[in-house]
Specification:
Blueprint lengths: L42 H16 L12 H11 L4 H14 L3 H5 L3 H8 L6 H16 L8 H4 L7 H12 L8 H12 L10 H9 L8 H15 L18 H4 L18 H14 L4 E2 L10 H13 L4 E3 L3 E3 L19
């Protein structure tokens, strides 16, 4: 049975009939009133009209934001968008849903099928977690993505952000949807900070929640989508376009002179790293039609010690498996995997 469509009140996207932005006070909010955690009742209405009007005119036409899209496509999109740009996600999203339009259909496939379909999106553990989630949805929730935040967050690979995003975008609920873009906008507009902290605090979540509009008429969902777009297109990390920002006149960071904040530590170079080694090994298995001899992976990476170490880690994590006699494959390839602790791992 296919999943019913979500509520069809439109988000503001190009080419779709738009509702009139909610009315309310356009009085400028005083940054001093919320810089230290004091929340006033008119904060939401002070921000909402300008932001929603901007979103109505500038939103990208993203398929997972269109009216009537069901919860399963929304969940798939959120898994794929974790640490992957929209431009790379779009073709993968369409291909995935063309093959598995429901959770039940993905649940009937193998984890290896999911990893191969995932292709080069990166972080393939997401594909395995999405497959695990599909099986739980099919077995426990009758094929329907659960509606409540409490049930969503129990799914493998679903954290507080993804649970809030699915509950909001698929079911119209009111939650603070705190991805990197939203956190940056909230931090600058409300707290006067150029960049958010490394992790979400209780205070940050509470502050973000305080400006989310009510859930009725999907206002909360539209607000969250608009905040994400604003962070992606205008309030960017390195070159924010403050002149184009609908919240510039209310932005605590801008009004304070845009003070520089501490930047996140740069990730180590990819070339030659353990991450590249893991990616090469997984790509070799992903591009094969099934299990391969263990020594066939030798050509994937020239440094034998690093290769053996990464393979051991991937097996321990369940990302790959020893299958049969001397074969290595993706989970679900071929016969049942052998005991991970048995026998030598690979050729030297």
């Amino acid at each position: 049975m296919r999943e019913p469509l979500a509520q069809s009140y439109p988000l503001y996207v190009p080419g779709v009939q738009r509702a009139t932005p909610p009315s309310g006070s356009r009085r400028r909010a005083d940054p001093a009133r919320y810089r230290h955690g004091r929340i006033e009742s008119d904060m939401t209405t002070g921000f909402e009209p300008a932001l929603i009007a901007w979103y109505a005119a500038n939103a990208r036409d993203l398929p997972w934001r269109r009216p009537g899209v069901g919860a399963w496509p929304v969940l798939v999109s959120e898994f794929m968008l974790q640490q992957t740009p929209v431009s790379r996600v779009l073709p993968a999203y369409h291909a995935w849903l063309s093959r598995w339009p429901t959770a039940a259909e993905l649940a009937g496939a193998t984890p290896a099928d999911a990893v191969r379909q995932w292709g080069n999106l990166g972080y393939p553990r997401r594909a395995i977690r999405l497959h695990e989630s599909a099986r739980i949805i099919a077995d426990t929730h009758r094929g329907q993505v659960p509606e409540s935040f409490a049930e969503l967050i129990k799914l493998p690979g679903v954290g507080s952000y993804t649970a809030a995003a699915v509950a909001s975008f698929a079911y119209g609920q009111r939650h603070p949807v705190l991805d990197t873009n939203v956190r940056r906008v909230v931090g600058r507009v409300l707290a006067g900070q150029e960049f958010p902290a490394a992790t979400v605090s209780v205070a940050e979540r509470s502050l973000a929640m305080s400006i989310v509009p009510p859930a009725d008429d999907r206002r909360a969902a539209t607000w969250s989508a608009a905040m994400m777009e604003l962070g992606a297109l205008v309030c960017t990390s390195s070159r924010p376009s403050c002149r184009s920002c609908p919240l510039a006149g209310q932005c605590s960071w801008r009004l304070a002179g845009s003070p520089a904040g501490p930047r996140a530590r740069q990730q180590k170079p990819y070339a030659g790293s353990d991450r590249e080694c893991r990616g090469r090994l997984l790509a070799e298995l992903r591009n094969a039609s099934g299990p391969v001899p263990a020594d066939a992976l030798d050509r994937s990476w020239p440094v034998a010690e690093q290769r053996r170490r990464m393979l051991a880690g991937l097996i321990d994590e369940g990302m790959i498996a020893r299958i049969g006699d001397g074969l290595i494959g993706l989970p679900g390839d071929g016969p049942q995997p052998m005991d991970r602790t048995a026998g030598p791992l690979l050729s030297p």
